[in-house]
Amino acid sequence: MRLVTPGDSAPASVNKYLLPHETQVITVRRHPAVLMVPVGLVLGGLIVAGVLSNIGAGAGAGGAISYIWWAWLALLAWFVWRVAEWSVDYFVITNQRMLLTTGLITRNVAMMPLAKVTDMGFKRSLAGRMLGYGEFIMESAGQDQALDRVPYLPYPEQLYLEVCEMIFPNKNATADD
User: Fold this and answer.
1) Mean pLDDT over residues 15-30, rounded?
2) Does residue 177 carry a pLDDT above 70?
3) Which of 42, 43, 89, 105 sits in a 20 to 30 Å window from 4, CA-based?
């Protein structure tokens, strides 16, 4: 089963990095679990701001309470920024290379040719197993690469099998297979 069906296309933010002769095979957004820490911080900050407002309300500290809520609004703005960044991060596999595009303002594109991948594995933590994400670990002929780890990938087993099939194709396969 392919993660991208024929006719689907990569988002325009990713499509501009594909070469004219490349065909997109897989395009996935990073797993939403990448946002677990920001969600926890915003919710924890909300609880702390609420408790401090309750405590400060009886002491007549109106100025301090407004600073507390402004600090929480700054935390909320940071969270919105992280969600916006997550929404434009993609892991793309074409017939020739793997790309990881990240960043909202400063765009980073890490790439590794499929032909250069000598070893590939994936790792799943306990949280990753429960939530459905994993991390790819790639090696390339003893060289440091821009793309050696890709954390928070959804469907890691399926994605791993698809990528391995592309990197190490079955040489004995016939057209009917």
Assistant:
1) 88
2) no
3) 105
